[in-house]
């Protein structure tokens, strides 16, 4: 006997969740179906509710759901009720999860769950016409062009309650169609273009079937090489035509882009919306000129399309909120709300849950939300340029972020990276028994689960994530693994709060790197002790090494700040607690060993950072006082058994399962932790060479 499930078989979304529900029921009732279980009924939408003589709880919102139990003739029927198919799908996922966690059918929790944010997006940079250029993008092209990859990726998104996929590249249009006015701007043959159209049509349809909106986001004044070859006698050379520079706009370019916008909306009816990234190739334009260009080209192209689509308006890099918000609030035709994207703490959101800067580090960005917007919502871009290889899981940081930044004017979040595509996994040693995943996002499954589930419902308890770990790695693993992750994965936020940064390549926490384009080769990106001494903090509640020593020597109070030594104590304590939690996890499966190795790596990074902070305090004290005892202490912290050993431990644990890999931050230099071992020891030489004051 099985438990029957009643639902509309015309709904692809609900059908997807029912597959998970059936699997959970089969596992749950392997020993026999409980007699008190009569069935599960899934109902979505007013018409279906009326046909079942059911009334939805009035508090259920779009994409929310209600779970209700009814005693019918001595047996229990479980109802999953929603105003829309997406909510019903999420409700079915929830019931399946509770069953997988071992909850009895008659104990499934009743109640109403609503989405915390209406916009819960993943940022995905495409590897063609890409904003960044590197081997790590090139090797993703075949994977990202494969619909089998997207099927799994979209399934993951749906189950984790993401409802928007934003696809980013410089100039997507030639990969999608040929315009009537500028046919030679598209370099593909008709057959090649037909393949591309099949690809995009299937991708947008698959997303829609899973309740996921799709947006194409481009960088405005860009055209294809073919356009420049055939339609621009004064074309910029390929070597000079990059994303950062003065405006490249002619009346032909404006007309071509308008046609592209219109044709895009007409040819792809399952595409939800379009986004613009106001600022690139507009360096010499005033804020008003930039906004006018968007109105003349994108707004007009959208108006001519004959179909209303949603719109993402990236906040301009040069801050003049009044110009942009006036344009959005008076446009009169864009559906509400428009999603206004703002980078949270520039390119490194894994620093602090406090909003300390936005793109460009500009002051005045608050003008977008004060006064409160009328017809748009702020959507925070949570950029990760800090860890691509090591798994990361820190649920309390995500909860704190949402609590701190979930004001009424906020519509949601984007989670993703500019410099990492979670497609083919190029970091792990191939053919290793560790590998139990096909794609990189499957390796980082917990990262995506944490953000998606907590953006939907921040009250989701840690037990949900611990149980997911238990199902993968055994009964002894779940809670200790999550606890270990939660401790050691504070390291990138500690570094990001203590060591100030700006754009993408100015910090890479898992490598202990900070670089810019002039410092790519030879492994010169390592954050040396001298860098830490010269560095400023991002978070003003933290004291830098030099400011701390200044206060110490002048006997100024420090109790209102996080000092370098307090941060070192916290890092060391977190590493110790993480390793202690890891020590109770039994089992030696290759998959579990790989997971544990990443936790160890974060712990050694934490211990290394802690030792280096302590050395920095002693080093600065020596530089100011000439006390040789302080120099001796600094050298001790930098040597064995402290910083040098911690870095060697990091090399040992990562070398066992990771290989050299391309990294945007290093250009053509492949990344490994071993690459920077020499720089670890150079810190010692730096301290030894210091002169006492007055000498």
CATH architectural grouping of the largest domain:
Alpha-Beta Barrel
- CATH overall fold name of the largest domain: TIM Barrel
Q: Please give the count of helices.
A: 24
Radius of gyration: 27 Å
- The portion of residues assigned to helices is 40-55%
Give a quick precis of the structure:
With 695 residues, the chain is α/β, with parallel strands linked by helices. The protein has helices at residues 12-28, 46-51, 85-100, 135-138, 141-144, 147-159, 190-208, 225-231, 251-267, 287-303, 321-329, 395-405, 440-443, 445-456, 462-473, 478-488, 491-498, 529-534, 545-553, 564-583, 590-625, 628-638, 643-655, 677-689; strands spanning 5-6, 37-44, 65-72, 75-82, 111-113, 119-125, 164-168, 213-218, 273-277, 310-314, 338-343, 376-383, 410-416.
Task: Report what the structure shows.
The structure is a single chain. The protein is an alpha/beta fold and 695 residues long. It folds into 3 domains: 109 residues, Chitobiase, domain 2 (2-Layer Sandwich), CATH 3.30.379; 342 residues, TIM Barrel (Alpha-Beta Barrel), CATH 3.20.20.70; 199 residues, no CATH class. Helices cover 42% and strands 11% of the residues. The protein contains 24 helices and 13 strands. Strands 6-7-8-9-10-11-12-13 form an 8-stranded parallel β-barrel. The protein has a 5-stranded mixed beta sheet with strand order 1-2-4-3-5. Strand 7, helix 7 and strand 8 form a beta-alpha-beta unit. Helix 16 packs antiparallel against helix 20, helix 21 runs antiparallel to helix 22 and helix 22 packs antiparallel against helix 24. The longest helix has 36 residues.
């Amino acid at each position: 006997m099985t438990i029957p499930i009643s639902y509309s078989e015309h709904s692809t979304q609900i059908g997807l969740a029912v597959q998970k529900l059936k699997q959970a029921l089969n596992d749950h009732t392997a020993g026999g179906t409980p007699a008190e279980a009569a069935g599960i009924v899934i109902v979505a939408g007013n018409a279906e509710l009326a046909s079942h003589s059911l009334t939805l709880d009035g508090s259920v919102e779009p994409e929310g759901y209600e779970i209700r139990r009814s005693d019918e003739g001595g047996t229990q029927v479980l109802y999953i009720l929603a105003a829309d198919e997406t909510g019903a799908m999420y409700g079915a996922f929830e019931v399946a999860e509770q069953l997988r966690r071992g909850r009895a059918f008659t104990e499934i929790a009743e109640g109403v769950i609503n989405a915390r944010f209406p916009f819960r997006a993943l940022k995905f940079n495409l590897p063609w016409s890409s904003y960044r250029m590197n081997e790590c993008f090139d090797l993703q092209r075949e994977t990202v062009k494969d619909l089998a990859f997207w099927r799994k990726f979209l399934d993951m998104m749906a189950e984790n309650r993401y409802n928007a996929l934003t696809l980013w590249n410089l100039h997507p249009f030639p990969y999608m169609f040929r315009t009537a006015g500028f046919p030679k701007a598209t370099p593909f043959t008709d057959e090649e273009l037909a393949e591309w159209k099949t690809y995009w049509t299937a991708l947008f349809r698959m997303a829609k079937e899973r309740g996921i909106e799709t947006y194409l986001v481009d960088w405005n004044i860009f055209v294809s090489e073919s356009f420049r070859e055939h339609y621009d006698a004064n074309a910029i050379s390929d070597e000079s035509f990059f994303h950062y520079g003065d405006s490249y706009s002619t009346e032909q370019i404006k007309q071509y882009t308008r046609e592209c916008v219109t044709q895009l909306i007409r040819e792809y009816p399952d595409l939800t919306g379009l986004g613009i990234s106001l600022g690139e190739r507009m360096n010499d334009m005033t804020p008003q000129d930039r906004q006018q260009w968007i109105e003349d080209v994108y707004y007009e192209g959208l108006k001519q399309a004959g179909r209303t689509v949603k719109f993402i308006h990236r906040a301009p890099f040069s801050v003049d909120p009044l110009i942009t918000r006036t344009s959005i609030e008076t446009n009169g035709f864009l559906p509400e709300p428009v999603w206004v994207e703002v980078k949270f703490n520039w390119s490194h959101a894994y620093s602090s849950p406090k909003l300390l800067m936005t793109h460009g580090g500009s002051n005045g960005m608050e003008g977008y939300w004060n006064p409160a917007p009328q017809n748009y919502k702020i959507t925070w871009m949570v950029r990760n340029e800090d860890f691509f290889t090591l798994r990361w899981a820190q649920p309390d940081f995500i909860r704190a972020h949402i609590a701190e930044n979930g004001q009424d004017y906020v519509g949601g979040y984007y989670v993703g990276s500019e410099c990492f595509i979670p497609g083919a996994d190029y970091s792990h040693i191939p053919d290793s028994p560790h590998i139990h995943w096909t794609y990189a996002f499957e390796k980082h499954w917990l990262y995506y689960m944490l953000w998606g589930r907590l953006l939907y419902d921040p009250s989701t308890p840690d037990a949900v994530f611990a149980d997911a770990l238990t199902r993968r790695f055994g009964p002894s693993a779940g809670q200790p693994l999550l606890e270990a992750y939660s401790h050691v994965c504070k390291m990138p936020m500690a570094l990001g709060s203590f060591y100030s940064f700006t754009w993408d390549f100015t910090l890479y926490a898992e490598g202990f790197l900070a670089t810019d384009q002039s410092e790519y080769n030879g492994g010169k990106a390592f954050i040396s002790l001298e860098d830490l001494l010269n560095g400023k903090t991002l978070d003003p509640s933290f004291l830098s090494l030099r400011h701390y020593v200044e206060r110490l020597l002048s006997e100024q109070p420090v109790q209102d700040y996080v000092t370098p030594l307090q941060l070192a104590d916290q890092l060391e304590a977190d590493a110790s607690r993480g390793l202690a939690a890891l020590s109770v996890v039994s089992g030696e499966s290759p998959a579990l060993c790989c997971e544990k190795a990443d936790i160890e790596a974060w712990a050694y990074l934490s211990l290394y950072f802690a030792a280096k902070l302590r050395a920095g305090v002693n080093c600065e004290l020596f530089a100011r006082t000439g006390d040789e005892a302080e120099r001796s202490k600094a050298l001790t912290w930098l040597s064995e058994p402290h910083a040098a050993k911690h870095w060697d431990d990091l090399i040992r644990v990562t070398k066992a399962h990771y290989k050299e890999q391309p990294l945007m931050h290093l250009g053509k230099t492949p990344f490994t932790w071993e690459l920077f071992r020499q720089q670890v020891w150079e810190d010692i030489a730096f301290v030894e060479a210091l002169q006492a004051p007055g000498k």
